From TrEMBL:
Record-level GO cellular component terms: mitochondrial inner membrane
Taxonomic lineage of the native organism: Eukaryota, Metazoa, Chordata, Craniata, Vertebrata
Cellular compartment(s): Mitochondrion membrane
Membrane-crossing segments per the record: 35-56, 68-90, 124-145, 157-180
GO molecular function: monoatomic ion transmembrane transporter activity
Keyword Transcription regulation recorded: no
Entries under Pfam families matching the protein: SFXNs
Membrane topology: Multi-pass membrane protein
Protein name: SFXN4 protein
Protein family: Belongs to the sideroflexin family.
Keyword Transmembrane in annotation: yes
GO BP annotations listed: amino acid transport; mitochondrial transmembrane transport
Top-level taxonomic group: Eukaryota
Length: 210
């Protein structure tokens, strides 16, 4: 539970720092709301992530199938889903209050909730892919290594697993960040009518955040 809490605290802080930063609300109330939502998301995600292992230990479920499911298969989708959930919670003010949208020349046209929703949704998806793959692929690779008996010393499996995880994470970071452009696009038909009344542009842009 502690390690889960540390992991989700880091991802929540990273999300908060690298959000869009343009929702229109009182600064102090916005920060307070994001911190409270972040703490709630961290606590919830940590409990959900630790629950399968705690349940298995509590009821002494030691079968090989249970070990495979809880320790090998379940962490990847759980980390992906909880990471996306944390992004949605921490950055929820962006789709509640809206973010700035600009024309091709960088001129701010207005504040759009739909653009905020699109930015948060894209970031949550990229974060889910990042951590889901980072926890799934190393387990699959290590399974193949063990089946092929490429590592003879059992004490070397731990360092090898850590090396594979770090390598996959390093490779997935640029992939995750490049899934959607930093300067996102949104079409005229997807924006609120009150924004469209002041311009004839057909495509608008927004800062997606990371």
């Amino acid at each position: 539970l502690f390690l889960q809490f540390v992991f989700h605290t880091y991802t929540a802080a990273f999300t908060l720092i690298n959000g869009n930063g343009t929702p229109k609300a009182e600064e102090y109330s916005l920060q307070q709301k994001q911190i409270l939502l972040g703490l709630g998301a961290i606590s919830y995600s940590a409990c959900i992530g630790a629950l399968p292992l705690a349940f298995m230990n509590r009821y002494a479920l030691k079968s090989s199938l249970m070990q495979l499911v809880v320790r090998k298969l379940l962490p990847a989708p759980l980390f992906g889903l909880t990471s996306a959930f944390t992004v949605g919670m921490v950055r929820s003010p962006e789709f509640e209050n809206g973010i700035e949208v600009m024309d091709r020349n960088g001129k701010v046209i207005g504040v759009s909730k739909k653009a905020g929703e699109k930015a948060v949704r894209e970031t949550a998806l990229s974060r889910a892919v990042l951590f889901g793959t980072t926890f799934l692929l190393p387990e699959a690779l290590m399974y193949c290594v063990q089946r092929a008996k490429l590592i003879k010393n059992p004490h070397a499996l731990g360092p090898a697993r850590m090396f594979v995880i770090m390598s996959v994470l390093a490779g997935m970071l640029p992939v995750s960040f490049s899934m959607f452009p930093q300067c996102g696009e949104i079409k005229r038909a997807d924006l609120e009518p009150e924004i469209l009344s002041s311009t004839e542009e057909t495509v608008f842009f927004y800062n997606r955040g990371i």
